[in-house]
Write a sequence for this structure.
């Protein structure tokens, strides 16, 4: 088997098995061993031309090896576009991170191998194999990928191939979007539209070869959610038949592409069905118009804020730009505000405007002082650009950042940094009981408690920054919970086993009890 595997261009990484194929390449699992511990990456290899037959075919059409080489060189440049696209998303918790890449040109023939090394993640198909996801789990997936599309929108990128095979799951339970092999910048796509992607999840206008925009990604994500809530069956495929034939798939595709109305997915409640069917609307103008709008619909449902028809007000502007600027209790603000400003204050009487403005100014000052104190507490050098901008701009009136969201993102960055540095840490303890990891300054950065040593029979992982707990990961093979702490040891976010986010619910007994419990457990790990 090893003889069939390619060699890695990174000496420290050894390719050990093939794990799949993307749009334009093969993907392998690679390992690196340091001080007796093993770490993994995914390496994607794109070969151009793809086969000797492809090379010969172009030689028949184009005379001269220089012209043939130029033709394939252009394809290489297009593939590098995937790398540059994904490098723009580095550090994003909902898009697969590219760590390195190399291009190797053949010496004796026209050809190239492009190696792209990425973070090693669990494929979504492997993650959900043999189990049915709950509606809350599917909602979390939908929100995570809607946020990924939000970042794509910021860079004017259409993914064009959203499907389960291009979804991955991180160590911390985040769903990530990968394989931008056929993604192109929106401006380029508009001038040369092409019908690429997977027909099973493709939007009708894209299938027909008509001009399209980023709403095709919203449609594809909607079809993915439909399938997950419909016993794994796409629209118009029978749930009763065990064996689905090629003709069945063709007939189902024809119905969807002709605009036949979709019936609600069987396991989604009425509210979630409404969201999914809107995302999958045949006409683009009837879908969600932005990823943010799609995200907030799912977030409202997950947190019980879904409006009834009688409660909805006429909308003169998109909800993302108006109602979302108002604070909502227990709202997990994962998106940066698209627009901010004292619109609500302007509609109040003059006296209240003055008081509100004073409160806002005080809040901005407190935000800056708090962020400064975080920096002084030896937090990571890799800060959110929003935090840096606050410190560089001494005008409190321009500080529009939501400090709570910034702290959450900083916590995620800290956790990722510690995971990356574990190979260089000293490991103390015994597997099956408890392992502790110390950095080069002999500071405890992580503790792993095995179920046999846990009072609750679960895995308990505690992550420390400057020997303070900031993140706890409690999990078993079937469920997981995440806890985020501020630098004072106060729980500020709890994501429960159903994927529901609880933010700063200090009025909840259960929320406070759990926060204190794991904070106390983390402190006990300093005892020898």
């Amino acid at each position: 088997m090893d003889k069939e595997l390619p060699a890695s261009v990174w000496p420290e990484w050894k390719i050990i098995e093939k794990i799949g194929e993307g749009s334009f390449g093969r993907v392998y699992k690679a390992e690196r061993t340091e001080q007796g511990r093993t770490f993994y990456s995914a390496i994607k290899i794109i070969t151009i031309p793809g086969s000797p037959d492809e090379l010969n075919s172009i030689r028949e059409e184009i005379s001269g090896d220089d012209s043939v080489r130029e033709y394939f060189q252009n394809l290489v440049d297009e593939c590098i576009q995937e790398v540059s696209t994904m490098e723009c998303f580095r550090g994003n918790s909902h898009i697969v991170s590219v760590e390195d890449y190399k291009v190797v040109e053949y010496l004796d023939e026209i050809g190239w191998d492009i190696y792209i090394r990425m973070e090693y993640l669990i494929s979504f198909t492997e993650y959900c194999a043999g189990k049915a996801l709950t509606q809350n789990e599917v909602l979390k997936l939908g929100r995570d990928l809607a946020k990924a599309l939000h970042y794509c929108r910021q860079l004017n990128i259409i993914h064009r191939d959203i499907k389960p095979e291009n979804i991955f799951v991180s160590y911390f339970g985040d769903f990530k979007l990968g394989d931008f092999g056929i993604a192109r910048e929106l401006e380029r796509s508009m001038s040369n539209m092409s019908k690429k992607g997977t027909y099973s999840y493709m939007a009708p206008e894209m299938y027909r070869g008509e001009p399209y925009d980023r709403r095709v990604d919203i449609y594809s994500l909607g079809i993915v959610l439909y399938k997950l809530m419909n016993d794994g069956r796409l629209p118009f495929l029978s749930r009763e038949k065990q064996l689905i034939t090629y003709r069945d798939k063709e007939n189902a595709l024809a119905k969807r592409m002709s605009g036949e109305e979709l019936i609600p997915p069987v396991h989604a409640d009425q509210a979630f069905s409404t969201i999914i069917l809107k995302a999958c609307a045949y006409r683009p103008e009837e879908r969600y118009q932005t990823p943010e709008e799609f995200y907030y619909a799912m977030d409202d449902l997950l947190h019980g804020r879904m409006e009834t028809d009688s409660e909805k007000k006429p909308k003169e502007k998109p909800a993302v730009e108006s109602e979302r600027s108002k604070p909502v209790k227990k709202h997990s603000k994962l998106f940066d505000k698209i627009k901010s400003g004292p619109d609500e204050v302007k509609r109040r009487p003059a006296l209240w405007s003055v008081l509100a403005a004073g409160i806002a100014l005080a809040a901005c000052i407190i935000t800056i002082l708090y962020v400064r104190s975080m920096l002084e507490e030896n937090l990571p050098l890799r800060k959110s650009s929003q935090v840096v901008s606050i410190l560089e701009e001494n005008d409190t009136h321009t500080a529009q950042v939501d400090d709570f969201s910034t702290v959450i993102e900083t916590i995620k960055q800290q956790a990722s940094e510690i995971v990356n540095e574990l190979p260089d840490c000293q490991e103390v303890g015994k597997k099956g009981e408890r392992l502790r990891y110390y950095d080069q300054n002999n500071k405890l950065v992580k503790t792993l408690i095995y179920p046999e040593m846990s009072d609750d029979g679960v895995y308990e992982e505690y992550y420390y920054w400057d020997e303070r707990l900031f993140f706890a990961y409690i999990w078993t093979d079937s469920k997981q919970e995440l806890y985020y702490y501020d630098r004072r040891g106060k729980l500020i976010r709890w994501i429960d086993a159903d994927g529901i986010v609880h933010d700063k619910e200090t009025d909840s007994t259960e929320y406070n009890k759990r926060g204190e419990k794991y904070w106390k457990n983390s402190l006990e790990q300093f005892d020898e």
The chain has 15 helices and 18 strands. Residues 185-194, 308-357, 364-402 have pLDDT under 50 and may be disordered.
